[in-house]
């Protein structure tokens, strides 16, 4: 094997889950090494203001919050590095992780906190206004558009849940569905259709998100009537799903059909002893910064117990 380094505890990923795991693992003297991956700070670096994380009474910008997490982990003694995990070998302990296709790290315990990525429509205007009225999380950002008109695109249970959440805050929710039907469960569809301030647009595609510096309207196209129209809105929520960043672990770790890593209920343990998963790579239900941080704490405590038991065996 090329260049190899041996560490006690390796953490892959640097959102709230990875950094919290690093804080706890450092305090337990596990000397963790954390690799930040492609997007240091994770999804929070593409959000603007975070108002729902406890301890920040005046809110905080997502990127700044992740800098705070990183600095706290560093102060506790975590070794935080740039680098992307490109391959793994979990056939035996120590577990091996390749970084940037050039060096291998061997670890007695591995904590996976690689997160998930929101799926986007792929419009130039959507990326340009991301964080300025375009969001992939209604629970995070809906509050900022209280009493205003907003749009949401999606047709699954998550889209319905987010539309219902927005309907309690916003004056009108324009829900855009690409086909003539929704994928969501019957119960969720019924709730949406019975909510007076949710207006569903069937067979409708988003052409463009309009606005100079922030969202002021969206241009949509009806595939049945072939008509294009403009809907004035202050925000555009994309709810077409998330993609867990778990491709690296295919064939090693158990995952559901969407690719979320499976953990033993109430723990961060995967099907391989000594490999732990936390944050959005294993959570498709809550997906909040605070729950990710909580699961990062669990992973570090689970790893500490595992490594402690290992030492007693030797």
Write a structural description.
The chain is of the alpha/beta class and 314 residues long. It has 2 domains: 186 residues, FAD/NAD(P)-binding domain, CATH 3.50.50.60; 119 residues, FAD/NAD(P)-binding domain. The chain contains 7 helices and 19 strands. The strands form 5 sheets. Strands 1, 2, 5, 6, 7, 8 and 19 form a 7-stranded mixed sheet that branches. A 5-stranded parallel sheet has the order 10-17-11-12-13, covered by helices on one side. Strand 14 and strand 15 form a beta hairpin. Helix 1 runs parallel beside helix 2. The longest helix has 25 residues.
Keywords:
7 helices; alpha/beta; 314 residues; 19 strands; five-stranded parallel beta sheet; seven-stranded mixed beta sheet; FAD/NAD(P)-binding domain; single chain
Order of helices and strands: EHEEEHEEEEEHEHEHEHEEEEEEEH
Tell me the major beta sheet: 7 strands, mixed
Q: Given the C-alpha coordinates, what overall shape results?
A: elongated
- CATH-defined architecture of the largest domain: 3-Layer(bba) Sandwich
Which structural class do the helices and strands define? alpha/beta
**Can you tell me the CATH superfamily of the largest domain?**
FAD/NAD(P)-binding domain
Summarize the topology.
Blueprint: E1 4-12, H1 16-27, E2 33-35, E3 49-50, E4 60-61, H2 62-75, E5 79-81, E6 85-89, E7 95-99, E8 103-112, E9 116-118, H3 124-128, E10 134-135, H4 138-141, E11 149-153, H5 157-167, E12 172-176, H6 186-193, E13 198-201, E14 204-210, E15 217-222, E16 228-231, E17 235-238, E18 242-244, E19 275-277, H7 289-313
Parallel strand pairs: 1-2, 1-8, 2-5, 8-19, 10-17, 11-12, 11-17, 12-13
Antiparallel strand pairs: 3-4, 6-7, 7-8, 9-18, 14-15, 15-16
Helix pairs in contact: 1-2, 1-7, 5-6
């Amino acid at each position: 094997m090329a260049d190899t380094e041996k560490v006690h505890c390796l953490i892959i990923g640097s959102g709230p889950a990875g950094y919290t795991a690093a804080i706890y693992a450092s305090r337990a003297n596990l000397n963790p090494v954390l690799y930040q991956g492609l997007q240091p700070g994770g999804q929070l670096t593409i959000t603007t203001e975070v108002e729902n994380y406890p301890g920040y009474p005046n809110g905080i910008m997502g990127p700044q919050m992740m800098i705070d997490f990183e600095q706290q982990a560093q102060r506790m003694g975590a070794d935080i590095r740039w680098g992307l995990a490109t391959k793994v070998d979990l056939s035996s302990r120590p577990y091996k992780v390749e970084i940037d296709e050039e060096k291998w790290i061997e670890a007695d315990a591995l904590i996976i906190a690689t997160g998930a990525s929101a799926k986007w429509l792929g419009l130039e205007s959507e990326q340009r206004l991301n964080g300025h009225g375009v969001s992939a999380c209604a629970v995070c950002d809906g509050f900022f558009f209280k009493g205003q008109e907003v749009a949401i695109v999606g047709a699954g249970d998550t889209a319905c849940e987010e539309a219902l959440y927005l309907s309690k805050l916003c004056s009108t929710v324009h829900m855009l569905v690409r086909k003539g039907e929704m994928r969501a469960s019957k119960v969720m569809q019924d709730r949406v259709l019975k909510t007076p301030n949710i207006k569903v647009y069937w067979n409708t595609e988003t052409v463009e998100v309009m606005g100079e510096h922030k969202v002021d309207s969206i241009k949509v196209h009806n595939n049945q009537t072939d008509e294009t129209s403009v809907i004035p809105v202050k925000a555009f929520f994309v709810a077409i799903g998330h993609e867990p960043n778990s491709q690296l672990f295919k064939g090693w770790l158990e995952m559901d059909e969407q690719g979320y890593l499976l953990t033993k209920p109430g723990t961060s343990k995967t099907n391989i002893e000594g490999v732990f998963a936390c944050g959005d790579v294993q959570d498709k239900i809550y997906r909040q910064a605070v729950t990710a941080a909580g699961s990062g704490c669990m992973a570090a405590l689970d790893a500490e117990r595992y490594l402690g038991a290992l030492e007693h065996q030797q």
